[in-house]
């Protein structure tokens, strides 16, 4: 039976059926755009938040660890729906693109235009290269295991090098008031925020400096390990939420 | 099959402006998008005009004039709109769901997708723009009230408004589509109830903030109630699968009948 049915060539929709399904696609695209901007952005803002908002929070220890770890979540969950059911290898890129649209709108209109923070102080990081690689690995391997291990690791390890061209210039050392600090730190001290005490408590607490310049790659590899675990966890979470069940009572 | 063909030919849904029959509600959808955009952009412009001049000190009499009055107006608006819209959707429900044609059912699936799209548009303003803007505001103002110039928009208008839209989508599906009337769609319920819990989390969040008001750490655990609520929006994937499976069946029925 199976062999026989495979012999029947696939018939693409034509005529009104085709136009109808294309109109439905466009409706879903608009829906998905606002869904992922709204939901994924809230998830990221309240978990990665401060590290992504502020230039001076982009440190060597927490930023490369937390950002990929929290941002691989929705991409994995959306891939779990779009790849097995529709063979669309774009779940991660879709989520990250929506996130970037949302963050850029907010950084400009809510931070720069409303409270006058310089736009350079509130530049968002990008996970777009990581997302493209994650989608490509899933498409080429068609394997949850391979994508978890190699895709998850690549997602985290690519984060720092792909963001360095954007943020490297703000880590140039300057001398200010007799002390050495970075341009990013200078932003923070010039534009005092209510969160400045938290910044000092978490970022500048002066511990864990044993390894000097090795802190960043260590954080990145720690993130890579955790992303290999986070990816399948969120894949199954995405599948669970995308249930097609109908129930009698709620 | 011939019976089905007759039924289909007798009652093709009519759409305005020479639109295809399945896009009958497209004008209403676009109009709702337009009205909501005007409301949200209007709120942002109001904040731009009055937040710095009158919204920094909740004990200032000008705060009462410009912000508390806005809160009461929002409350009155929502008190009217909630029962009106949900009541309308409920009382105009289809009582002959077993008799609708495949074309009518397809049209209603398109309309349900539009409802959910409007819901996600409301989620965008609540979960993305005004949510992160709240961090921006807390960095420059001292938190001396739960009714700040941004909370009054975000918590007490945006959150109830997307609940209104999500609830309407749920009610529409339950009252106008046979599959959703026979059983309660689990993914649709998750996608509506989960984000509803974000509104409930406001209580936990504000309770936490009664202990401190100056230091602002946006990724703090006190905010993670909002995070778990928004995960349930992933239920939309299940709604998509339910709809696609049913649409394929209905399209095949129409094709067979032609």
Give your account of this protein's structure.
The complex is a heterodimer of chains A (250) and B (258). Chain A has 250 residues and is mostly helical. Helices cover 67% and strands 4% of the residues of chain A. Chain A has a single domain (16-241), classed as particulate methane monooxygenase, chain B (Up-down Bundle). Chain A contains twelve helices and three strands; from the N terminus they run αααααααααββαααβ. Chain A has a two-stranded antiparallel sheet with strand order 1-2. In chain A, a hairpin with a 2-residue loop joins β1 and β2 (179-182). In chain A, α4 (63-71) packs parallel to α12 (215-241), α5 runs antiparallel to α6 and α7 (128-141) runs antiparallel to α8. The longest helix of chain A is centred in the first third of the chain and has 31 residues, at 15-45. Chain A is elongated. In chain B, α4 runs antiparallel to α5 and α7 packs antiparallel against α9. Classes of the chains: A mainly alpha (250), B mainly alpha (258). The interface between A and B is large, with 65 and 74 residues. β3 of chain A pairs antiparallel with β1 of chain B.
Question: How are the strands ordered across the major sheet of chain A?
Answer: 1-2
Task: Count every beta strand of chain A, where a strand is a DSSP E run of 2 or more residues.
Answer: 3
Show unreliable segments of chain B. 1-10
According to DSSP, the number of beta strands of chain B is 1
Largest sheet of chain A: 2 strands, antiparallel
Query: pLDDT average of chain B, as an integer?
Result: 91
Task: Please report the two chains with the greatest interface, counting residues with C-beta closer than 8 angstroms to the partner's C-beta.
Answer: A-B, 65 and 74 residues
Tell me about the largest β-sheet of chain B: none
Give me the CATH fold name of chain A. Answer: particulate methane monooxygenase, chain B
| Percentage beta strand of chain B | under 5%
Which class best fits the helix and strand makeup of chain B?
mainly alpha
Radius of gyration of chain B: 22 Å
User: Low-confidence stretches of chain A at least 5 residues in length (pLDDT < 50)?
Assistant: none
Overall number of domains of chain A: 1
């Amino acid at each position: 039976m199976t062999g026989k049915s495979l012999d029947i060539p696939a018939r693409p929709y034509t005529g009104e059926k085709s136009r109808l399904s294309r109109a439905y696609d466009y409706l879903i695209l608009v829906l998905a755009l606002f869904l992922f901007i709204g939901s994924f952005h809230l998830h990221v803002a309240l978990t990665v938040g401060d590290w992504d908002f502020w230039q001076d929070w982009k440190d060597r220890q927490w930023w490369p660890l937390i950002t990929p770890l929290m941002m691989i979540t929705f991409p994995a969950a959306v891939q779990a729906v779009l790849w097995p059911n529709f063979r669309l290898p774009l779940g991660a890129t879709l989520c990250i693109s929506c996130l970037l649209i949302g963050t850029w709108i907010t950084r400009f209109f809510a931070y720069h235009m409303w409270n006058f923070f310089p736009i350079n102080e509130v530049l968002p990081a990008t996970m777009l290269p990581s997302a493209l690689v994650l989608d490509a690995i899933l498409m080429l391997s068609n394997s949850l295991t391979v994508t978890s291990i190699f895709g998850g690791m690549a997602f985290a390890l690519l984060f720092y090098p792909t963001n360095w061209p954007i943020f490297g210039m703000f880590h140039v050392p300057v001398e200010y008031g007799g002390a050495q600090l970075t341009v990013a730190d200078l932003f923070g001290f010039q534009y005092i925020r209510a969160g400045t005490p938290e910044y000092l408590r978490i970022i500048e607490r002066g511990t864990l400096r044993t390894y000097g310049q090795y802190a960043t790659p260590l954080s990145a590899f720690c993130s890579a390990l955790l992303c290999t675990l986070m990816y399948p966890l969120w894949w199954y979470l995405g599948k669970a939420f995308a249930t097609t069940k109908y129930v009698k009572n709620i | 099959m011939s019976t089905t063909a007759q039924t289909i030919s007798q009652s093709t849904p009519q759409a305005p402006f020479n639109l295809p029959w399945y896009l009958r509600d497209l004008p209403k959808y676009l109009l709702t998008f337009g009205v909501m955009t005007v409301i949200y952009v209007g709120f942002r412009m109001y904040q731009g005009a009055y937040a710095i001049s009158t919204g920094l000190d909740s004990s200032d009499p000008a705060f009462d004039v410009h912000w508390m009055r806005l809160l009461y107006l929002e409350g009155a608006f929502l008190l009217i709109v909630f029962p009106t819209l949900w009541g309308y959707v409920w009382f105009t429900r289809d009582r002959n769901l077993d008799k609708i044609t495949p074309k009518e059912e397809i049209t209603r699936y398109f309309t349900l997708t539009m409802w959910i799209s409007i819901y996600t548009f409301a989620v965008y303003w609540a979960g993305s723009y005004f949510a992160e803007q709240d961090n921006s505001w807390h960095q420059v103002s001292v938190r001396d009230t739960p009714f700040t110039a941004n909370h009054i928009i975000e918590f007490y208008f945006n959150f109830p408004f997307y609940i209104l839209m999500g609830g309407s989508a749920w009610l529409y599906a339950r009252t106008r589509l046979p599959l959703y009337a026979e059983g309660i769609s689990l993914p649709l319920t998750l996608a509506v109830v989960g984000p509803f819990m974000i509104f409930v989390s406001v209580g936990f969040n504000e309770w936490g903030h009664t202990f401190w008001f100056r230091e602002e750490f946006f990724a703090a655990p006190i905010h993670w109630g909002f995070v778990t609520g928004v995960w349930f929006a992933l239920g939309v994937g299940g709604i998509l699968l339910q709809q696609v499976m049913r649409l394929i069946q209905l399209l095949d029925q129409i094709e067979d009948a032609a």
